[in-house]
Write a structure and sequence with these properties.
Structural class: alpha/beta
Number of helices: 14
Oligomer: single chain
Number of domains: 2
Strand content: 15-25%
Largest sheet: 8 strands, mixed
Radius of gyration: 21 Å
CATH class of the largest domain: Alpha Beta
CATH superfamily of the largest domain: Glycogen Phosphorylase B
Strand order of the largest sheet: 3-4-2-1-7-8-9-10
Low-confidence stretches: none
Shape: globular
Number of strands: 16
Length: about 375
């Protein structure tokens, strides 16, 4: 049996959906997999990545973060004719490839739509896309959604719950497992910040990540601690300009190895995302795996507040309330019993629900339902 995954991009491009696609493809034991995606350049290419066949379509233009290219049609036809999939696993939101797929998917090929997120920001463009989206969901033999919260609140999925299954995102735990010498690196990092409690953020510096609210919250935190902000993005310069505190450090992009050390050195993981664009929160899962309690906002319809459970694995406060966020930081820093409880529960919940071990068995059971 063969499965063709259709993703926006694919490794070495790094992104939440792309990482999920990679884990599914590389952990497939029973099914032969291939990938159809856009290239990061305007050149089309067929290649093998870690022994996986990847069809990359040259991206000619991009509109509202959606790559477009007429060459998608011949490349999809090539993938269908050469690879001959029994199942197509489409990662959404991915409207242009979805529309192309509707024009040429063979009748005998089963379609799995992996619903990572709704289309939220592009409201006016969505009116044009919506009929195709509904046609896609009708054609789907199975729909996967990453959390019960998202399933219950997603308007596009409302009429298709009878064929929808909750299939949580997972992390590659091998990237976060401690090895010889790591404890020394963790202590050295703590020493760098004078052994003060580290409030750590990692992610793209974009609007829905809510970094502005974290920087505002820092002004109201009474405890002696430091704020370490990893990652970069279009808002980085504005965020730096608006922040004048000497206890806030912008550390830029981090390698996987550096990220692991920061997660274990941190006392609290700051996850101040504010909208449903943050559909799940893989960075939150990574922090939980390392036993670092998080503080989140309440995000209606997002899976974030299902991944991290209030007063069990994290503290959750009113959306965009920087004062409440600051109070939660102070509460965790000053309540060691609560911190230990959240830390232990975070590790337990992650290992029971969000790691790649057992992934082949889980996806195989779903495919077999087809």
């Amino acid at each position: 049996m063969k499965v063709l995954h259709i993703s926006k991009y694919y490794y070495p491009y790094i992104g939440g959906v792309e990482n999920v696609c990679k884990l599914l493809v590389e952990n497939s034991e029973k099914y032969e997999c291939a990938v159809l995606c856009f290239n990061s350049s305007n050149k089309g290419v067929v290649e093998k990545v870690n022994n996986i066949l990847v069809y990359r379509v040259g991206a000619k233009i991009t509109i509202s973060k959606q790559a477009l290219s007429l060459s998608y049609f011949p490349m999809m036809k090539k993938a269908l004719n050469e690879f001959k999939p029994d199942i197509i696993h489409l990662h959404c939101a991915n409207p242009y490839p979805a529309i192309v797929l509707l024009t040429m998917i063979p009748k005998d090929v089963k379609l799995v739509v992996h619903w990572h997120m709704d289309i939220i920001k592009q409201k006016y463009l969505y009116y044009l896309i919506q009929p195709f989206e509904r046609a896609l969901l009708k054609r789907a033999n199975m729909i996967l959604v990453t959390s019960p919260n998202y399933l219950n609140e997603s308007k596009p999925l409302h009429d298709f719950k009878n064929k929808t299954y909750v299939f949580p995102n997972v992390i590659n735990e091998s990237l976060l497992q401690l090895t010889d010498g790591d404890q020394k690196k963790i202590q050295e990092l703590k020493n760098k910040y004078k052994n003060k409690k580290i409030i750590f953020f990692i992610g793209r510096h974009i609007q829905y990540k809510g970094l502005g609210y974290l920087i505002e919250a820092e002004k109201h935190v009474k405890s002696d601690c430091v704020f370490v902000i990893g990652g970069t993005g279009p808002l980085t310069n504005d965020l730096k300009s608006s922040c004048h505190s000497k206890r806030v450090y912008f550390v830029g992009r981090l390698t996987n190895e550096e990220l692991k050390i920061y997660h274990y050195a941190a006392y609290i993981f700051a996850f101040p995302s504010i909208t449903k664009n943050e559909a799940f929160g893989l960075a939150l899962v990574e922090a939980m795996y390392c036993g670092t309690p998080a503080i989140t906002f309440t995000i209606p319809g997002s899976g974030v507040n299902w991944v991290g459970l209030n007063n069990e694995t994290c503290l959750e406060v009113k959306n965009r309330d920087s004062i409440a966020y600051a109070d939660a930081i102070d509460k965790l820093i000053n309540d060691e019993i609560l911190w230990k409880k959240l830390s232990i529960n975070s590790i337990k919940r992650t290992k029971e629900n969000f790691i790649s071990k057992g992934l082949p068995e889980k996806i195989n059971k779903l495919y077999e339902k087809l």
